[in-house]
Amino acid sequence: MSEVFKAVKISENVYWVGAIDWAIRDFHGYSTKRGTTYNAYLILADKVTLIDTVKAPFKDELIARIASVIEPEKIDYIVSNHSEMDHSGALPEVIELAKPEKVFTSAMGVKTLAEHFHSQERLVPVKDGESISLGNMKLTFIETKMLHWPESMFSYLADEGILFSQDAFGMHLATSERFADEVPSDILEFEGAKYFANILLPFSSFVLKLLERVTKLALGIKMIAPDHGPIWRKDIGRILDLYGIWANQKPTMKAVIAYDTMWGSTALMARAIGEGIASSGGSIKLMPLRSSHRSDVATEILSAGALVVGSPTINNNMFPTVADLLYYLKGLKPQNLVGASFGSYGWSGEAVRQVEDILKAMKVEVVGEGIKVKYVPDRDALKECRSFGALIGKRIKEKVG
Ligand code: FEO
């Protein structure tokens, strides 16, 4: 296999030895239309060190890439920056094969790995700011608690200026190119934002604190090597700046109108409300939920100022796709949004109020009272929808300033 799957040299003594998952289209509920990579890195220091592993089914690809530069049995240390199974799934088998002296991870990492794999053998806890000697090089650990798990940490190889950043600064993007500067910038920006919106958004305050710390280190950082997607080696400031923008969640004039419809009435209302928002200077993005994935709606919200949600009432409840979206978004804790609800109904019409209640629970500033229309909106009802949209647009404008 090592004749087929080769390591890629990324600096004087460091190799990428990860795996490319071209086929994955669903990453625990996040749509990964462009696949992903599980990055692992091999440091050829006096103490040969492997940074993270890969998802279990890709173990052979990882081993083959390692074997293309060194016998896996020569690995002295493994560092687990993140215990989630896309990076630790292959760890037990790699430990079994390589028999490293030690596996370094945070104190929480020891607990988390033990809870996954039911063994603490070789696990050694490291503290924030602690360094270990690799003989001719030194590796320093930076605690990144809640980015995005309680055990997460970065590792910094000052000798080569490489920050191994696990999930942070990564993206789900399968490519044959290993460096970000080899990938079109619009793809990088879209997939980077999608990753942030769907994985890191709830931890934005931690991101802002971490950025201050990373910015202080930045003079020495030549490369940011995440666990997914391409490696940043040029214009590193750009991805740091984008993380600052995304974590601040400053509202914009964009309104995301997410809705589903049974017989076309709620869809018609969505269009009329959209016209109203646009008439107040807003930019609208209509997202019919039968063809818009929840993770794509989350991505649009990252750069929006409003979330407007439409649902018909079915059997006294909101439509299932709307419930799916709202519970997903609630967990992501988006901030600084205004919002509203609307929908058509036949008998009782509970959905509009239910949607409004969830928006309030999400701390979205709800504008006015949600609009309900019985069966099919007539001209007056559509005019009312347009006026409602204009009101929402006015409030967005006030918030954006
Ligand atoms: Fe890529 Fe949080 O795992």
How would you describe this structure to a colleague?
- With 401 residues, the chain is of the alpha/beta class.
- The protein folds into two domains: 8-248, Ribonuclease Z/Hydroxyacylglutathione hydrolase-like (Metallo-beta-lactamase, Chain A); 254-396, 3-Layer(aba) Sandwich (Rossmann fold), CATH 3.40.50.360.
- The chain is 36% helix and 22% strand.
- The protein contains twelve helices and 24 strands.
- It has helices at residues 59-67, 85-88, 91-98, 107-117, 185-200, 204-217, 236-248, 265-279, 294-302, 320-332, 351-361, 379-400, and strands spanning 8-11, 14-16, 19-21, 26-27, 30-31, 36-38, 41-43, 49-51, 77-79, 102-106, 123-126, 131-133, 138-143, 153-157, 162-164, 223-225, 254-259, 283-288, 306-310, 313-314, 317-318, 338-345, 365-366, 371-374.
- The strands form six sheets. Strands 1-2-7-8-9-10-11 form a seven-stranded mixed sheet. Strands 17, 18, 19, 22, 23 and 24 form a six-stranded parallel sheet that branches.
- The mean pLDDT is 97.
- Bound molecules: MU-OXO-diiron (FEO).
- MU-OXO-diiron binds next to helix 2.
